[in-house]
């Protein structure tokens, strides 16, 4: 008999995601742009209750519209966290094609973009156990909705933004798997299938 996994509460999902943002993304400086928007309280955390892709697409469409309509000085970016759907990384990757379709059909290309994070993230050119995959590993499957204008400003203000990817890979190699585990940024125990 298998013990049934319990789903975390919205508060637990947001707390785990904030901890990941603070300790990994900001703490390791994986995204030098995150510290400013986080510090100003401009990150919107949304937990989707979707249990299938169709409902998640609906949540994505709504959140894209909310972000587009919100003043950037109130909400600059959104983390759409969906703990109950797309837990298999292959399903998540396939869903990202639908995300691009939504951006095109809502005519948001060049206005908003979506970055992807997943607990089991694996870059196409790496092995599953490669520590560099952790640059895109979050406690729960997450779609990060960003404003293109904000990203353009951040990139313009950051010298050699193209080097961020390489620097992140080096940071993770130096940290290693044990160091990543010590950050404590995985999903709360017992909450992932």
TrEMBL record:
Entry-linked InterPro entries: DUF1415 (IPR009858)
Protein name per UniProt: DUF1415 domain-containing protein
Superkingdom in the source lineage: Bacteria
Organism, as annotated: Candidatus Accumulibacter proximus
